[in-house]
Amino acid sequence: MDASLSPSPDKSSTTPYDAVVVGAGIAGLYMLHRLRQAGLKAICFEAGEGVGGTWYWNRYPGAACDFESLEYSYSFSAELEQDWKWSTRMARQPEILAYLNHVTDRFDLRRDIHFSTRVSAAHFDDSTQLWAIRTDQGDSISARHCVMATGCLSTPKPIEYPGADSFKGRILRTAFWPKESVDFVGLRVGVVGTGSSAIQAIPIIAEQAKHLTVFQRTPNFSVPAGNGPMNPDDERRVKASYADLRAREWDSDVGICARLAPETRRALDVSEQEREAEYEKRWAAGGLYFYCSFVDLLTDKAANETITAFAQKKIREKVKDPVVAERLVPKDYPFGAKRICADTGYYETYNRDNVRLVDVKAEPIREIVPEGLKVGSEIHELEVIIFATGFDAMTGTLLNIDIRGRDGLAFKEHWNEGPRSLYGIMPSGFPNLYITTGPGSPSVLYNMVLGNQYHVDWIMGCIEHLASSGLTTIEAKPEPESAWRDTVNAIGKMTLFGEASSWYMGDNVPGKPRVVLPYLGGFRSYKKICDEEAERGYPSCLIA
Ligand code: FAD
Ligand code: NAP
Question: What is the value of pTM for the model shown?
Answer without folding.
Answer: 0.97
